[in-house]
Design goal:
Blueprint lengths: L1 H20 L4 E8 L4 E8 L15 E7 L4 E6 L9 E6 L8 E8 L15 E9 L8 E2 L30 E4 L20
Parallel strand pairs: 1-9
Antiparallel strand pairs: 1-2, 2-7, 3-6, 3-8, 4-7, 5-6
């Protein structure tokens, strides 16, 4: 009986450590291809999931901060399955809230009907891509769930969010791995020097 009690006590002390180590965290990344002038949003999960537990729910969304007046074109889902994961988007005009940036909220449009795909552990998985009809007018970045000034607007919910069926209830989004993304190519190493 003493051994059983001791094992139960050890288990109770170890469970919080095991639970914390097994917490699911997903990060988002935004990248830009200068050749195709295409932005790509990807996710990275610290835990792998296979269908059907890999299904993303309808509350999954990615918000991108864009220059005022920036417009989306060619929104394309990048995961090919029998019924691909669909994406839609809506705009938030930052000037309505006294802000100089606008926001594009991308959300899953067919969470209940798409064919689930495998989510690998610790690997980038491209979700969707898009381009601009506005040309290169400024940098884009992923929304910051804690620091963006739009967070002070109680009537909106622009937060990045991801809910995976197998990970249980609640938002598993943990942050962004990209910062400000420029559409201006870096200077060429062979470019001449400026003279004054």
């Amino acid at each position: 009986m003493k051994t059983l009690k001791r094992n139960l006590i050890v288990l109770l002390f170890c469970l919080p450590t095991i639970w914390l180590g097994a917490q699911v965290e997903v990060t988002y990344n935004l990248s830009y291809d200068f050749g195709t002038q295409t932005y790509t949003v990807s996710m990275n999960s610290n835990t792998a999931y296979n269908p059907p537990l890999s299904r993303l729910t309808s509350s999954t969304q990615v918000t991108v901060v864009v220059p005022e007046g920036w417009q989306v074109t060619n929104l394309t889902g990048l995961i090919s399955t029998t019924v691909p994961l669909g994406w839609g988007f809506s705009y938030v005009d930052g000037s309505d809230y006294g802000l100089t940036n606008d926001y594009i909220v991308f959300a899953v449009s067919n969470s209940g009907t798409y064919t689930p795909f495998s989510i690998p552990a610790n690997a980038d998985l491209d979700l969707f891509s898009f381009q601009s009809t506005s040309g290169c007018i400024g940098n884009l970045s992923l929304f910051d769930n804690t620091a963006d000034p739009l967070n002070s607007e109680p009537t909106l919910n622009p937060d990045n969010n991801i809910v995976i069926l197998g990970a249980g209830a609640g938002n598993k989004y943990a942050g962004n791995t990209s910062g400000s993304v420029s559409c201006v190519p870096p200077c060429s190493a062979n470019a001449g020097t400026l003279s004054y």
